[in-house]
Structures are given as structure tokens and as C-alpha cells.
């Protein structure tokens, strides 16, 4: 650690202690008089209260000094619908709280036709419904909007001065920025840089020797983050108009192991559907590597539902994690259990559960025997699996499911005959047999048989040793879980981000198949869906004349099997063994942010020409990202042109050539929907609730991602921008010149979907603070303007709570087949080792991509501890520019079990250094009984190197960094390289998700 930083950490410790003594008298007197800056507060106890929203007598009478509008919080990726209180005079946000119409902020939420006036008046103190509908923000959501006013915010377009990463910038006009990035040239006195106009070539192959790589336009890569409601706009309007294959969000460094395991379980690696428990009605929740009430998505909603379920119902919540978090609760007594698990030991634990469930016949046999949708209907089931489908074991067709021309074949349990699955109600579950078909002998096993063999591959002792959970506990948990039938549920998230995280999630989800819980009330749900927004009744906003059908390899080598590449074909044609490939390919993964910069540097499959990062911060968020920094610093190494669209200069955008300002929090347009854990159709709309403070285009439009993309698109003469860019379903055309041309039409689509919403009254328009938008609404929506206003006045459109269920089933079920065996997975080979992946969940030890075990390379004798990160209930990657949150959580610590600390001769408060083979971090040791022995736990969100933490020079001004932002520890600096690959960080060996958990480390006192 550099000396300054160390001194700072010492200084904060001493200051904190000193403050407790020397500053106490003053603090006490200040507190007692509630005075600030020498001015006595209005109330000696309650201080200076904010302006009230209004008064409730019999009806609500709004305070004319404030405006209340709907907005969307994105203090985390939950995107809760909020109500924002704005000071009319200053136009500043005073406070944010939940929108009572929105399921992410209130449960039960208000019936959609509740008048806006009533939505306020029933919150008055005399209302019996006040507590029921009081919509809230979480601790983070209460504060995080102050980042809109952060002094380190980028308000004007910036161009770097000096070398990349020197933190020196000059302000330029947006017109100059667009001209330079479009036309290129000798932009920095370092030689010619190719501009976007030349990169956007849809004819010339990007790799002259390999036409399969696609056109030169693939040389642009766009990296976003979580979807804040604008992803569809960026992807469909810009990325697909430019014609590049290369867009990625942040999933690879966030929860891709979980997403991919769920996608394979549901048999859809295209759309990546997402599963969550029906928290409200489940009886047993096994939550592994995630912690509702501590973190996760939807954070606020699931925390509330969990609290209700444990207090008002009999939910048993079992938290399997290496650390005791807020997901456990002493108040809920034995309704909560914490099962401590070794970091990365979750796969062994779950394979142990599957073994017990299968061996002891604890599964729902009749459900698993249901082989088709037809049988599902006939038996009144809510879902079905392919447990009885037959998988060919003969070498030439190994791994394929046995089918006729139309559908899989199964053995009818009644007569043991082979039949199309649609004609069979109950098929034989365990099959391992030879079949004679068309004179050919076929060895087949059923999916369930393969799962059984896989679960029994290791002994229960091995699973116990690997997980750190006793055999008895595994057996007990398997019995408890299955005793709740379809109301037993599972959940997982970031804890599975290790080298075998994909199979871990697949195995966790498989527990649900054992009890048959998908689409049942109290079981698992893929969510309630959304109203038709971007592709709706009046407009298809994601289609436009000239939209490019992109093609070719992606830079991350995702969505492509190695066996389909030119490299494979050429090696075969030359009579060579095609394995290993030059590097990994990921056919079942949809995007890998963590591979893109490295792959460009390796020129495999090609080199990028430009990167647009949009609020992305992989340098902070990717485990092992220190290895990216030299590549970002040198324009020749990986990214010749780097444009960041970002309201802040973060750890990633500080290496950009240009920075384009963007909107923050309540200044932003968008349409969002919850991820999961909701059963009803839900759309939240966001529009600029407060005025954006940044520079504008000549038109007066604030510079944001949305407006920048329009003007850049016009400069590049891309289809889908300017005149006649939006086509209505009746064949008429409209211009896309401003973000509202797009987003308000999406709101209109939502308003018109199904039974259109009513018209909004003048009174509601005023109460919801929408007067400002009337002219724009009339101009864009014509006769529908009041319907669109109705949606905006309620912050979106929300189906009634009671419409989420049909008796004991979900009203919006997932319609696909559950893959007990995933055929695509079972037919995929590792591109380096040529090993065939298991098509069912199976146990692997932590490994490098090529198969070498981590424990062989980093033995416990050299690296005695395993480090893991846990998500904060206050901080997130998006919160560092909030000063309010800085005050609440000024630092993070290195957490360790007291006995482990004692074994190393360490004490609470010691300054210590952790070292892995990938890097070092230093911080203060904190003893916590709730940490698994021989482990290190680190809260995510602090230890920052940018975004207000360091000095930045803009022109002649230096914006001083706030040293407190550096306080704490960023675990990702310990991240490992994959030693079995050239220039790559450690990742899941099947899916490529960034392995940031279970890092072997050593510890020493500084
Ligand atoms: S959970 Fe909290 S921080 Fe996250 S979006 Fe909702 S209110 Fe904001």
C-alpha cells in the first residue's frame, strides 16, 4: 500500500478515537441545542424539520412550496418507484420515499385506480390504512440522491490532457467532442486515431482472413451497467443501428453464475429468464450465497416480504453463507437458521442435498414423471420437466435427447413402451437401458438417472468435507426442505461467483425441480412480466428502417461454440487436433464484460477500435482488474479510442479519452420492470423529475446518454435518428430528435396496452407535478396525452395484487420445460480441454479453466485463508458520490472470526495486510463471531481510487479528492489471474463469470 494511504488509514483511526474524547463536549452542546453554524434550531429536540408535503384534514391539501413527482431510485439495481419531494424555489430534491402504487416500494400496493389525492390523504395520521400503504425507501435510497449535487460531478464534456489516467482534463463543447470522435485524426498528438465514422463499416471484414468474425463495425464495443430503464434504447437504437455485435452489461462481474445456472435450468440461454421465490407465500426458504434483508434484488421488497413472512406467517428461512448477515434475525427466533458454509463450498452442500433427496426418495415423483405440456395440462400441474426424457449414451450421438421428428420420446410407465412425450401422462423416471430402434441398438439413460449418478458420484462424507457442513446437517436440511412440498423455495446470487458457480446455481435450482415448485403459489416464479412498453400497441420503438442485423464473433467470444469457428475448421482441415483453441469460447453465455478488454489486447478474435463505456466501472468491480489498468492506459494496447458516458470520473472512466456527462437519479428517462420476486405485470416509468444541471446542446437539451446518442447518430448518419426515425404501427412516421420522442411514446404504449388506462384529470396532473409536461404530452401523444399522464401520475402501470395468482398457481407462469438435463450444455465441449460438460449439475472442485485445481497451486500451507466479499445494505458501487452515505458508512473492514484471529496472533483493530497471488490490500481487522473460521469477509463498496477520492484537474481548476472515500478495502484488488490462460482473470470454467469469491490469501500485521 502506498505510504499516503497507510498514513491516512492510521490517521482516520486516531482521529476517530480522538474525536470521541476531544470533540465530545462541543458535539454534546451542539446536539443539546440542536444548533448548526451557531444558529439555534426551530425545535430544540427535533431540529429544523423539512417543509411538509401538505396537510390532511378530510382531503389532502398540498403545500404550495413543494412539488411531488414520481421517480425511480437507482441507488442499487432494484429501481424502486419513488416519490420525490422537490423544493419549488430551488428545484432541488429534498427527500425521496416510496411510491405507494409501486410493488417495489409498498406491499400491498394501492389499487391502480386509486385517485392520486387519496394516495396522499390515506397516509394521514387518522387513516386506518396509513401503515399498510406507507411506501418507503431503504437507508440507501433515503440518502443516495444527494449525489446529484456532488462537487465531483461531470457537468461539461471533457477531453483528456496528457496521457490516459493522469487525471487532467479540459472542457470542450459537445459539438467538438462529437466531431472528434466521429472523424478521428491526431486527437492527442500521439498519432492518428480512427474515428467512429470510419469504424462503422458494414462491408469490410474486421479480420480479413476470417469472414465469420463479422464486419469492421464490430470494432466498436459498448459496455453498460445494470438496466436503469434505458438499456433497450441504447441497444436497439444505437448499438444495433451502428451495427456492432458488442454490447454487454455488468452481469459478468455481478451475478452471471446465478443468471446462467437459472437460464440452463429453464432451458433458455437466449433470454436468460430469472427465478425467485414467491417470498410472500413460501413456507421454507433456502437462501444460499445471498441474503434477503442484507442485499439482493429486489432488495427492499424481498426484505419486507421476508420480515412479514417471519412475523405474520410461519416461514422458515435457512441462510447458507460463510457469514452471518441481516438475513438472519434473532427476533424471528427459530424461524431463521444460519448454516455456515466454506466459501465456494455451496456446490458440495447442494450436491449432498440432491444425493439425500434422490437416495431417500424424498422427491415429488409424480411431478417429475410428467413429461410434456400436454401431460401437465391433463394432470393439472403448473409446470413440467424433462426428467423422463432419454439421453443417448452411444458415442456417435452422445448427449442428444432421443426424439422422433417432432418431440422427445419417453417410456410410458403403464406399458413400458417408447412413445412421444405428448402422448404419455406419466413416464418412467429412472431409465438405464438398451433400446432397439430401426435395427440399431441405443443405450439411453433418463435425465433423472443422469442426475442420480451425478449426485452419487461423490460420497456424502466428501460433500460434507468440501462444504464444511456436517453429514447430519445435510441430511436434516434435505428432509426439512422436501417436507414443505411445493412451498419449499431456493435463492442464490453473488456468493456463487466463484470458479464453479455456474454448476452451483444449476444444482440449487434443481432442488426446486425435486419438489415441483415452479409456477406454484409459494414456489418459484419467473416474475409477473411487464406491459407492452417499447414494442406496443401504437409503436414498435425498437424497430426502424435500416436497423442492422448484426453478425460475427463477439469480442468476448460469447454466444459462439468454438466448433463453429474458422479456427476449428482450419485445424480440422489440416488434420490437426482442433483442441485446444487459442483461448476460451462461451456458447452458453450471453455477454462477458470481464473478457472484452483482454481479448482486444490479445487480438483474439480481433482487436477493438473503440470503446464506449456507459456508467460502467469494471476497474472497480472486476476481481483482478488491476491487470486491466496497463491495457487501458496505453491506447495502442487494447482500446485506441475510449469514450466514457458518465456523470462521474470513476475508476474506469478516468482512463477515457473523452467523457460525456450523463443524468443522475431523478433527472433520467426510462422504463423499468422488476427482475423477479413479483407476480403481477409491472412497469415503472421515469422522467426528469428535476432539471439536469449539466451543459446542454444548442437546442437546450441537457447532455445525457440519450441526447448524445441522438446527435452522435445524426453525425454518423445512422438509421433510426432524426426525421422519420420512429414508425407507428399505423404506418406513420415521427422524428427522434429528443429523448422524450422515444420515452414518452413508450409510456403511451404502456397506457394503451390491453384495456387502456383512464384519462388523467387536471387535478391529478397538478397534484402529481405534471403541469410542466402538458405541452410535450399533447405534442407527442395527441388524443392519448391524458392517458399517458395517468401513467406518469402513478409512476408507471401496476397490475392488481390479486391478479398475481389463479388459486394455487401463478397467473403469469413460465411456460418452458425445466431442464433436469440440459441438452445444449451436455453437448458442449470446453474449448481448451475438449472435456464434455456435464448436462446435469455435478460436483467440481475450484479450478482454473484448463482443469488444474486452485488448491494445488495455492495450498493452504501458503494461503491459509479464503477471502470473500459480501454486499452492503447501505453501500453499493453506485453510492460513493453520496456524502450522506459516506457519513453513515465511512469505511469498511477486514472481518475475521475471533478464534482465527487468535490463531494468527491478531487483535481487533490491528492494521493488517492480505496478500493473494494477484495482489495485496491493507485495512483494519474487525473481529466478528459470524464469520466462518479461516476466512476473511470484506464488505463491498469502499476503498475507492476515483469518483471523488483523488484530485482531478479540469482546466486550471483542481477538484480536491476527499480522502475518506479511499478508506476501507476493495477485495477485487486481491483477484487472481487464470494461470491456465494468457492475460485473463480467474473465472467460472464453463460460463466465464468473474470469480471474485473464495480467494486464497495470507495475512500479516502491517
Ligand atoms: S432498494 Fe433502496 S437503494 Fe435500491 S433502488 Fe430501492 S430504495 Fe433505492
Provide the list of bound ligands, each named once. iron/sulfur cluster
Q: Identify the strand order in the major beta sheet.
A: 11-10-23-24-25-6-7-38-39
Total beta strand runs: 40
Strand percent estimate = 15-25%
Q: State the helical fraction.
A: 25-40%
Q: Please summarize the sheet with the most strands.
A: 9 strands, mixed
Mean pLDDT: 94
Could you list some keywords that capture this structure?
1006 residues, globular, binds iron/sulfur cluster, alpha/beta, disordered N terminus, six-stranded mixed barrel
Summary of the model, kept short:
26% of the residues lie in helices and 17% in strands. It is built from 30 helices and 40 strands.
Walk me through this protein's architecture.
α23 (739-752) crosses α25 (774-781) and α23 crosses α26. The chain is of the alpha/beta class. The strands form 12 sheets. The protein has a 9-stranded mixed beta sheet with strand order 11-10-23-24-25-6-7-38-39, with helices on one face. A 6-stranded mixed barrel has the order 33-37-34-36-35-40. The protein has a 4-stranded parallel beta sheet with strand order 15-14-13-21, covered by helices on one side. The protein has 30 helices and 40 strands. The model is unreliable at 1-34 (pLDDT under 50). The structure holds iron/sulfur cluster (SF4). Iron/sulfur cluster (SF4) is lined by residues 73-76, 78-80, 137-138, 140-141, 299-300.
Q: Which helices and strands occur, and which strands form pairs?
A:
Blueprint: H1 3-21, H2 24-33, E1 54-56, E2 60-62, E3 66-72, E4 81-87, E5 93-98, H3 116-121, H4 130-133, H5 139-143, E6 158-160, E7 168-171, H6 174-183, E8 184-185, E9 193-194, H7 196-199, E10 220-223, H8 231-242, E11 246-248, H9 256-265, E12 276-277, E13 284-288, H10 299-312, E14 316-321, E15 336-340, H11 346-359, H12 365-368, H13 373-378, E16 390-392, E17 409-411, E18 418-420, E19 432-437, E20 440-446, H14 447-455, H15 460-467, H16 471-482, E21 488-492, H17 501-515, E22 524-525, H18 566-573, H19 593-602, E23 610-614, H20 618-621, H21 629-633, E24 641-645, E25 658-660, E26 670-672, E27 682-686, H22 705-715, E28 722-727, E29 733-736, H23 739-752, H24 762-767, H25 774-781, H26 785-793, E30 796-798, E31 805-806, E32 809-810, H27 823-826, H28 854-857, E33 865-870, H29 883-888, E34 894-896, H30 898-903, E35 911-915, E36 920-927, E37 935-939, E38 952-954, E39 957-959, E40 999-1005
Parallel strand pairs: 7-38, 10-11, 10-23, 13-14, 13-21, 14-15, 23-24, 24-25, 33-37, 34-36
Antiparallel strand pairs: 1-2, 3-4, 4-5, 6-7, 6-25, 8-9, 12-22, 16-20, 17-18, 19-20, 26-27, 27-30, 28-29, 31-32, 33-40, 34-37, 35-36, 35-40, 38-39
Amino acid at each position: 500500500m502506498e505510504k499516503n494511504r497507510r498514513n491516512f488509514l492510521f490517521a482516520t483511526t486516531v482521529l476517530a478515537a480522538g474525536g470521541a474524547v476531544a470533540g465530545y463536549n462541543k458535539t454534546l452542546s451542539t446536539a443539546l441545542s440542536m444548533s448548526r453554524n451557531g444558529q439555534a434550531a426551530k425545535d430544540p429536540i427535533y431540529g429544523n424539520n423539512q417543509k411538509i408535503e401538505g396537510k390532511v384534514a378530510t382531503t389532502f391539501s398540498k403545500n404550495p412550496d413543494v412539488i411531488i413527482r414520481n421517480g425511480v431510485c437507482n441507488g442499487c439495481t432494484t429501481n424502486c418507484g419513488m416519490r420525490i419531494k422537490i423544493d419549488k424555489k430551488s428545484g432541488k430534491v429534498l427527500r425521496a420515499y416510496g411510491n405507494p402504487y409501486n410493488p417495489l416500494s409498498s406491499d400491498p400496493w394501492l389499487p391502480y385506480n386509486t385517485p392520486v389525492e387519496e394516495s396522499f390523504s390515506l397516509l394521514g395520521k387518522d387513516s386506518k390504512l396509513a401503515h399498510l400503504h406507507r411506501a418507503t425507501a431503504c437507508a440507501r435510497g433515503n440518502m443516495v440522491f444527494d449525489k446529484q449535487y456532488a462537487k465531483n460531478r461531470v457537468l461539461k464534456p471533457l477531453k483528456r490532457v496528457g496521457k490516459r489516467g493522469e487525471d487532467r482534463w479540459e472542457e470542450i463543447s459537445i459539438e467538438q467532442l462529437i466531431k472528434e470522435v466521429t472523424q478521428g485524426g491526431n486527437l492527442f498528438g500521439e498519432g492518428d486515431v480512427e474515428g467512429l465514422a470510419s469504424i462503422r463499416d458494414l462491408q469490410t471484414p474486421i479480420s480479413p482472413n476470417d469472414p465469420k468474425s463479422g464486419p469492421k463495425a464490430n470494432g466498436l464495443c459498448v459496455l453498460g451497467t445494470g438496466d436503469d430503464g434505458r438499456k433497450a434504447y441504447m441497444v436497439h437504437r444505437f448499438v444495433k443501428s451502428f451495427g456492432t455485435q458488442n454490447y454487454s452489461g455488468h452481469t459478468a462481474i455481478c451475478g452471471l453464475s446465478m443468471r446462467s445456472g437459472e437460464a440452463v435450468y429453464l432451458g433458455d440461454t437466449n433470454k436468460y429468464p430469472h427465478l425467485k421465490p414467491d417470498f410472500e407465500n413460501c413456507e421454507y426458504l433456502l437462501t444460499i450465497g445471498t441474503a434477503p434483508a442484507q442485499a439482493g434484488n429486489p432488495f427492499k421488497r424481498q426484505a419486507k416480504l421476508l420480515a412479514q413472512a417471519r412475523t405474520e406467517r410461519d416461514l422458515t428461512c435457512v441462510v447458507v453463507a460463510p457469514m452471518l448477515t441481516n438475513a438472519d434475525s434473532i427476533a424471528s427466533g427459530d424461524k431463521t437458521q444460519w448454516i455456515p458454509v466454506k466459501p465456494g463450498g455451496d456446490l458440495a452442500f447442494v450436491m449432498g442435498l440432491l444425493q439425500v433427496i434422490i437416495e431417500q426418495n424424498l422427491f415429488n415423483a409424480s411431478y417429475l414423471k410428467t413429461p410434456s405440456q400436454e401431460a401437465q395440462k391433463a394432470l393439472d400441474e403448473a409446470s413440467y420437466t424433462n426428467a423422463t426424457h432419454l439421453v443417448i449414451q452411444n458415442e456417435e450421438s452422445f448427449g442428444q435427447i432421443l426424439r422422433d421428428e417432432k418431440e422427445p420420446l419417453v417410456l410410458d410407465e403403464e406399458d413400458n413402451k417408447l412413445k412421444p412425450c405428448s402422448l404419455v401422462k406419466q413416464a418412467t423416471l429412472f431409465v438405464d437401458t438398451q433400446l432397439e430402434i430401426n435395427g440399431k441398438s441405443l443405450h439411453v439413460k433418463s435425465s433423472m438417472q443422469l442426475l442420480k449418478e451425478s449426485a452419487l458420484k461423490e460420497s456424502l462424507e466428501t460433500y460434507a468435507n468440501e462444504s464444511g457442513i456436517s453429514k447430519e446437517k445435510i441430511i436434516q436440511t434435505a428432509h426439512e426442505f422436501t417436507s414443505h412440498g411445493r412451498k419449499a423455495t431456493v435463492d442464490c446470487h453473488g456468493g456463487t461467483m466463484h470458479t464453479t458457480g455456474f454448476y452451483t446455481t444449476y444444482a440449487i435450482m434443481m432442488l426446486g425441480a425435486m419438489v415441483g415448485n415452479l409456477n406454484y403459489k409459494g414456489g418459484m416464479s419467473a416474475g409477473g412480466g411487464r406491459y407492452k412498453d417499447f414494442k406496443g400497441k401504437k409503436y414498435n420503438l425498437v424497430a426502424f428502417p435500416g436497423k442492422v442485423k448484426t453478425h460475427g464473433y463477439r469480442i468476448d467470444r460469447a454466444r459462439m461454440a468454438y466448433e463453429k469457428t474458422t479456427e476449428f475448421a482450419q485445424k480440422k482441415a489440416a488434420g490437426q487436433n482442433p483442441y485446444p483453441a487459442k483461448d476460451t469460447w462461451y456458447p452458453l453465455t450471453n455477454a462477458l464484460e470481464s473478457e472484452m478488454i483482454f481479448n482486444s489486447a490479445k487480438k483474439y478474435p480481433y482487436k477493438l477500435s473503440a470503446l464506449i463505456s456507459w456508467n460502467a466501472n469494471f476497474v472497480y468491480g472486476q476481481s483482478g482488474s488491476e491487470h486491466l489498468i496497463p491495457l487501458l492506459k496505453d491506447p495502442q494496447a487494447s482500446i485506441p479510442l475510449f469514450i466514457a458516458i458518465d456523470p462521474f470520473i470513476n475508476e474506469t472512466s478516468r482512463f477515457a479519452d473523452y467523457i460525456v456527462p450523463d443524468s443522475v437519479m431523478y433527472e433520467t428517462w426510462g422504463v423499468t420492470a422488476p427482475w423477479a420476486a413479483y407476480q403481477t405485470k409491472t412497469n415503472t416509468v421515469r422522467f426528469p423529475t428535476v432539471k439536469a444541471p449539466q451543459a446542454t446542446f444548442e437546442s437546450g437539451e441537457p447532455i445525457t446518454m440519450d441526447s448524445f446518442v441522438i446527435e452522435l447518430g445524426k453525425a454518423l448518419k445512422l438509421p433510426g435518428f432524426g426525421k422519420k426515425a420512429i414508425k407507428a404501427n399505423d404506418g406513420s412516421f415521427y422524428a427522434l430528435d429528443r429523448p422524450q420522442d422515444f420515452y414518452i411514446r413508450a409510456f403511451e404504449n404502456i397506457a394503451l396496452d390491453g384495456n387502456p388506462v383512464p384519462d388523467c384529470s387536471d387535478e391529478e396532473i397538478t397534484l402529481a407535478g405534471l403541469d410542466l409536461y402538458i405541452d410535450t404530452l399533447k405534442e407527442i401523444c395527441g388524443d392519448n396525452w391524458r392517458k399517458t399522464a395517468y401513467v406518469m401520475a402513478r409512476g408507471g402501470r401496476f397490475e392488481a395484487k390479486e391478479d398475481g395468482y389463479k388459486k394455487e398457481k401463478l397467473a403469469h407462469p413460465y411456460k418452458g420445460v425445466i431442464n433436469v438435463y440440459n441438452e445444449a450444455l451436455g453437448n458442449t465441449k470446453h474449448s481448451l480441454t475438449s472435456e464434455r460438460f456435464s448436462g446435469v449439475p455435478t460436483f467440481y472442485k475450484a479450478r482454473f479453466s484448463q482443469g488444474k485445481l486452485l488448491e494445488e497451486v495455492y495450498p493452504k500451507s501458503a494461503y491459509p485463508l479464503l477471502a470473500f466479499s459480501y454486499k452492503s445494505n447501505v453501500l453499493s458501487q453506485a453510492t460513493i458520490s453520496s456524502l450522506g452515505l459516506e457519513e453513515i458508512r465511512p469505511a469498511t473492514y477486514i472481518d475475521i472470526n475471533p478464534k482465527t484471529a487468535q490463531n494468527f496472533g491478531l487483535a481487533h483493530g490491528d492494521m493488517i495486510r492480505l496478500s493473494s497471488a494477484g495482489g495485496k490490500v491493507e485495512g483494519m481487522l474487525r473481529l466478528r463471531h459470524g464469520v466462518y473460521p479461516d476466512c476473511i469477509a470484506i464488505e463491498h463498496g469502499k476503498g475507492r481510487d476515483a469518483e471523488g477520492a483523488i484530485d482531478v484537474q479540469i482546466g486550471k481548476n483542481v477538484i480536491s479528492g476527499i480522502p475518506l472515500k479511499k478508506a476501507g478495502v476493495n477485495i477485487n484488488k486481491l483477484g487472481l489471474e487464470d494461470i491456465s490462460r494468457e492475460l485473463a482473470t480467474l473465472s467460472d470454467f464453463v460460463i466465464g463469470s468473474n470469480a471474485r469469491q473464495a480467494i486464497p490469501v495470507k495475512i500479516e500485521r502491517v
